[in-house]
Amino acid sequence: MLGIFIAARSKAIESFSYWQSGLLTPMFLVAGTFFPLGELPTWAQVLGNANPLFHCVELVRHAVFGFEGWADVGHLAFLIMFALVSWRLAIRFMERKLIL
Q: Whole-structure pTM over 0.85, yes or no?
């Protein structure tokens, strides 16, 4: 859904690299995949907690090493809310692009 939103917002195929460099790469770096989020500066921790990839990483990590109860429910709730918001944004902007 996020990919459809990005496609709807892009003016041309050449602008996809801007989205990848400006949005997807930083999201990947502050997702806590390679190093713990707690070791990052405070501003990066805040961005990491708002990052849907962080919540995916935490769910996978907890699935492997043991679930943590309500924390995992919170991660799942965040991902569901992110999916709903990005779904609505994708539909709205793709309709504009296709209808106009």
A: no
Complete DSSP assignment for 9-58: H-SSGGGHHHHIIIIIHHHHHTSSSSS-GGGS-HHHHHHHHT-HHHHHHH
Provide the residue ranges of all domains of the chain, joining segments of one domain with +: 2-99
Angle at 89 between CA 81 and CA 72, to 5 degrees: 15
Is residue 5 within 8 A of residue 86, CB to CB? The reply is yes
Q: What is the pLDDT of residues 62-71, one digit of tens each?
A: 999 999 999 9
Q: CA-to-CA distance for 64 and 58, rounded, in angstroms? A: 10
- CA distance readout (Å), 69 to 18, 33, 47, 62: 38, 21, 23, 10
Cβ(31)–Cβ(53) below 8 Å: yes
Q: pLDDT tens digit string along 8-23?
A: 888 887 777 887 788 8
